[in-house]
Amino acid sequence: MAGQHHMGDGDIRVAETRHDTGISPFDRFSDADVRALIADYPLAWVCGGTGAAIEASLLPLVGVYDDSGRLIELIGHLMRSNPLHALLAGRPDATILFRGPAAYISPEHAGRRDWAPTWNYAQLKIAARIAFDDALTEHALALLIDAVENGRAAPWRVEELGPRYHAMLPHIIGFRARVTDLSGKFKLGQDEKPSTFAAITATLPDVETVAWMRRMNGER
Fold first, then answer.
1. Alpha-carbon distance 64 to 75, whole Å?
2. pTM score
3. pLDDT, tens only, 101-127
4. Measured between alpha carbons, how far is residue 48 from residues 83, 114, 120, 182, 215 in Å?
5. Distance between CA 96 and CA 151 in Å, rounded?
6. Helix 31-40 vs helix 207-215: angle between axes, to the nearest 10 degrees?
7. Is residue 170 classed as helix, strand or coil in its secondary structure?
8. Phi, psi (5° rounding) for residue 180?
């Protein structure tokens, strides 16, 4: 799948994969890769405005997907006092940036002195329209807590906050970010020779990046 998703007729459209040499292997990824990156790295830069009026905040987000597995929106929350709230309430177009795994790759990892060092990484750039909704706030909080506490021996529940929870709610607002465009780059060793790829994945200490390298090179 080529690394560009487009909005059309109310749905996300995925650009057709081309098999010519003009498409970088780093630009080929699937809807499942998008979903996994957002789940593994939910803290994203949410940016609004233009020029000197740009505002940006790191916010944790949860993806919402259609029946085919394509990302259609992101749900989040922020403090009402955050300048991004006022800006996006008036100008709802936002850019959302996710950074996935990232690691410096030394020639030492590759086992080659004739090999230039590089940086492996994965990223998503999402254009979205933000809609704030008071009625969504508690759902947004519950969705996030479920996502990040899932799998723990004793998952934390919001009820454990007691009266503090309801005291905090008036200061928070939930939002939906409807995805209008998505692009990404997954530079994770797809262009390496098999022997070099094997050396890097055997010696790189960053286990998350190694796992993603193997994910994006499943045919090796």
1. 7
2. 0.89
3. 999 999 999 999 999 999 999 999 999
4. 10, 44, 28, 16, 32
5. 27
6. 170
7. helix
8. -110, -20
